[in-house]
Write a structure and sequence with these properties.
Number of helices: 15
Number of domains: 1
Number of strands: 3
Strand content: under 5%
């Protein structure tokens, strides 16, 4: 064991959390793919189990590689990743693989594997915003030099994601706002950005209503929000998902039905991804649901601690920004399952079945571990080198 630990750097608690989530993911996905297996592979659930296990192992390997890279290098990687992700998002929007009236995926030739470009864009934009805020600390209160240049990449990336995936675009926009608040951007400027975001959404809504078909997902967004706001007036199709999730939660009770005993997996749409937390509550009960919630909260707490200990503002913003984005997405997924917010289609990070989602989650956590490994080990006079608690 000691020989293995010698090659592992960074926060051991985060490593443990990721391993626990991986094990839980295997159990939950294997339990929830019965219907999918019968539909596509004659009931062969082992096909999806081995596929998902392979994706998890590759993800953990990617996390290991990412944590070995010195976190300061991610400042330059952020620029490259952003410049690559913007054209990829544009290509996806225009020529991507369409599923449920949304172009969110590109198909990689030869291996025929789908790739969700927004996963790359999310990590790239967070890294870029952290880099920009760290470099502009001396002029961060200036509207023209410290605030206005940051709006361009945020609006381009969120705008390209918006037509196909409103929830991802909105969550990424909120993540950027949180990073800007931590990075000492003027509250007045942040208020202007929030107002601009609301106006942009209003314009999208009005254009979509005036010219039907412009935004293929607009009717879906509106119907989800309306059915959530007025569940008694919603049709059977609109409330079906939340109703099945409620049944899963109610029958799970405190201790659950035990692993593999779910019945709602046969009725819930996408029980292995969007509604996997409902399966958690059904099979593992309130205790299992609280355990997963605590794992994400500990991840956020440890990442904030890493950020405050880091001597460079870039590393601090990077660790806190990435951790908040992952935990915020997890909270949205869990809130959807318990009917606290409208259905969004967001997977539960590191738990839901997926390919690029798991890989970029692991890559993002690897960056946090890289910051953890290098926290306190750098010095200098530039703004990038000032500790966050000093800069704030």
């Amino acid at each position: 064991m000691e020989q293995v630990l010698r090659y592992i750097r960074g926060d051991r608690a985060i490593w443990l959390i990721m391993l626990l989530l991986s094990v839980l993911s295997l159990l939950l996905v294997y339990s929830s793919i019965v219907t999918l297996a019968y539909r596509h592979h004659d009931g062969n659930t082992f096909y999806y189990l081995f596929r998902h296990g392979f994706i998890l192992v590759c993800g953990l390997g990617l996390m290991y590689v990412a944590h070995k890279i010195k976190y300061t290098y991610y400042s330059k990687i952020a620029q490259l990743a952003l410049y690559v992700s913007i054209p990829l998002l544009l290509i996806t929007l225009l020529m991507g693989t369409s599923i449920n009236s949304a172009n969110r995926w590109l198909t990689i030739p030869v291996i025929n594997q789908t790739f969700q470009t927004s996963d790359l864009a999310k990590v790239a934009l967070i890294m870029f915003v952290a880099r920009f805020l760290a470099k502009r600390q001396d002029e961060i209160k200036d509207f023209n030099r410290g605030f206005l240049p940051l709006l361009v990449p945020i609006f381009i990336v969120c705008g390209l994601i918006l037509p196909a995936d409103l929830s991802t675009a909105a969550m990424l926009f909120v993540n950027c706002l949180i990073l800007m608040f931590i990075g000492r951007v003027s509250l007045k400027h942040i208020g202007v950005l929030i107002l601009a975001g609301i106006m942009s959404l209003s314009m999208v809504y009005m254009v979509g209503k005036a010219m039907p078909g412009t935004f293929g997902r607009l009717d879906t967004w509106v119907s989800r929000i309306e059915s959530f706001a007025s569940p008694d007036d919603a049709g059977l199709n609109q409330s079906y998902q939340s109703d099945q999730a409620k049944i899963a939660i109610a029958t799970g009770g405190v201790v659950g039905k035990m692993p593999g005993k779910s019945t709602q997996r046969n009725f819930l749409p996408h029980p292995y991804s969007d509604f996997i937390y409902a399966i958690v509550l059904e099979e593992y009960g309130l205790i299992g649901g609280l355990l997963i919630l605590m794992l994400y909260l500990i991840l956020l707490f440890r990442s904030i601690k890493i950020g405050l200990q880091c001597e460079r503002t870039f590393g601090s913003l990077l660790a806190i920004g990435i951790a908040f984005s992952l935990v915020f997405q997890a909270m949205i997924n869990m809130a959807v399952a318990v009917n606290l917010v409208p259905v969004t289609g967001q997977p539960l990070p590191m738990v839901s079945m997926g390919g690029t989602s798991i890989w970029f989650t692991c890559f993002a956590v690897g960056i946090i571990l890289s910051v953890s490994a290098g926290a306190g080990g750098s010095s200098g006079r530039s703004n990038v080198n000032k500790p966050l608690n000093h800069a704030v």
